[in-house]
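Subject: Protein entry, chain in single-letter code together with its fold tokens

Category: Structural biology, sequence-to-fold work with a learned token vocabulary.

Notation: Tokens come from a learned vocabulary of local backbone shapes, not from coordinates.

Start of record: The labelled sequence and token lines come straight after this line.
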Amino acid sequence: MDVMSPELNEAAAEPVQLEVPAFAERCQQACLQTWEAAVNHPFVRSLKDGSLDAERFRFYQMQDARYLEAYADTCSILSTRFTAPEDKLWFIDGARLAIVVEQELHAGYGKQLGYTPQDVAALVCSPNNTGYQHHMLQAASHRSLVEGLAALTPCPWLYSDIGSRMMEEMGQIPEDHPYAAWLTMYADPSFITYTNELMLILERVASEHGAAFQEAAIEAFGQSVRYEWMFWEQAWTQQTWPV
């Protein structure tokens, strides 16, 4: 899923590197094979080289718009679980950004790809999308705070990782690339800053929880990474419910 917004673009202009704290590194290493499979999924490779067909991209865009609703809800729930005002505001703003992105998807790519806000509202979420949403919301609502944060973190981090690697490989995205605007968001400095800030919050909260809670959080993180792979896969196969 993507949580970019033009508002993030205004926050930083200089290149920003991903800075991975110790607990986030533990989470990633525990599911590294799945992580690399998600980064290198055929959907991602085709998106980067411009060969992805428009119908698959349209499927992804519409499902992503619905996913962002759950991402916003998850951020809103997490905001209620913090006591410090600055933490509450950080997650409230994250929820707001996700909703802004959804609206921009309707206005921008919706016109380009031929769907309306009403089409998105009427969309049946795919099995993979439904599962991912429920996983995040359940972790944020019913599990420890560190587990809820861990379930949320792979989404922006994976996209930031893809963007960082892409810029190392390509240097810059050609202007005539069919998905240039979308790919540019992945490596946006402000998006990477957002990811770094989220990982720092995860690090702080993890340090306040014992080993058993940390292990559960690592498992929740890994499950979200599986769902990230599945999100690409559902668009690649244009997944529907079997019955």
Remarks:
- Residues 4-12 have pLDDT under 50 and may be disordered.
